[in-house]
Write a structure and sequence with these properties.
Radius of gyration: 22 Å
Strand content: 35-45%
Number of helices: 4
Low-confidence stretches: none
Order of helices and strands: HEEEEEEEHHHE
Shape: rod-shaped
């Protein structure tokens, strides 16, 4: 009799582990034996317990990050910019390898885009400057499943 109870309890535990409730506006990436397998979107979903696990819980609603002031060029009249960036996960499967450090990845990509655009960014005004940077950022981040939705970097000071 006790063996049947243990089997019943084990079955209930495995059933409970198999159910995943994914909240609205989120996506979960599932790994099987440590490798990406699939993405779960909102709703009640199933995974294979003990074989698959939820690796990352990603918000699809967007994030804001503070961009610290950086110097764009090393000339006498160097331009410094700082402000905020808003970005969103649009393809969780592509984001999965970087899911643990998304903010750092976006900041590094922003630094690289600013370095590439520095020669002509100094001549642009606020709205044009942010539109050019947003376009360059989306070209860099699009293949990685991310989208820059808003960019508000301002000139901090001329050195």
């Amino acid at each position: 009799m006790s063996l049947s109870w243990l089997l019943l309890i084990g079955g209930v535990v495995l059933f409970a582990l198999a159910i995943q409730r994914v909240p609205q506006g989120h996506a979960y990436t599932v790994h099987r034996f440590g490798a990406y397998r699939r993405t779960l979107f909102s709703g009640v979903r199933w995974i294979l317990p003990l074989v698959e696990s939820v690796a990352h819980r990603l918000s699809l609603t967007g994030r804001a990050i503070r961009f610290p002031a950086v110097q764009l060029s090393r000339e006498e009249s160097a331009l410094r910019v700082g402000g905020c960036l808003w970005y969103q996960v649009v393809e969780p499967a592509r984001v999965d390898p970087r899911a643990d450090q998304l903010d750092e990845f976006v900041l590094e990509s922003t630094h690289a885009a600013l370095d590439d655009l520095a020669p002509w960014l100094a001549s642009l005004e606020g709205g044009e400057f942010n539109a050019a940077l947003k376009g360059a950022m989306n070209q860099r981040l699009g293949p990685h499943g991310l989208l820059v939705t808003r960019c508000e970097l301002d000139r901090v000071a001329r050195l």
